[in-house]
Amino acid sequence: xxxxxxxxxxxxxxxxxxxxxxxxxxxxxxxxxxxxxxxxxxxxxxxxxxxxxxxxxxxxxxxxxxxxxxxxxxxxxxxxxxxxxxxxxxxxxxxxxxxxxxxxxxxxxxxxxxxxxxxxxxxxxxxxxxxxxxxxxxxxxxxxxxxxxxxxxxxxxxxxxxxxxxxxxxxxxxxxxxxxxxxxxxxxxxxxxxxxxxxxxxxxxxxxxxxxxxxxx
Length: 217
Description:
This protein is an alpha+beta fold. The protein has two domains: 47 residues; 165 residues, 3-Layer(aba) Sandwich (Glutaredoxin), CATH 3.40.30.10. The chain is built from nine helices and five strands; from the N terminus they run αββααβαααααββα. The protein has a five-stranded mixed beta sheet.
């Protein structure tokens, strides 16, 4: 073999070794990435509470014959408008002994909606879901995590407990279970509603709810 042939052979061997080295490095990095992802999922999963361990926020008579459930999103302009219309307050004032009004999360409108939903449930863990709910719809300008924490301070929550709940994703399973339920019911937008388990075709007016409540009793 001439000098040129030996040079080509050496070049090929070097290229082959380089490819092998790159494959080994790439494979090692992939394994590390997989292990890191699995570890992250295990840590996050360990912090999250089981969905059935977190009670639904509710108003009215727990034993009332009519249960109205709102599937809402804190990033939803239509949900904000429905809240500001005062329909639920009027209904509870008039039929509070007959109605149980329940909130469940359906966070699908903005990228920040799922974390805002968790924040609401974290406030609920301190007995102040509705105060936090009202603050988000009436005064909040952002749903980023730092803003969500500042709202907790504004309504007097235990800041350390709230921050830990939000940062650790303690309410993630609850929020995910609520969203899955809304999808199973076939709800296509927010706010979505059911009355005694039956989905309504659109957000109801006060008059429509009154008629439905009287029919359902």
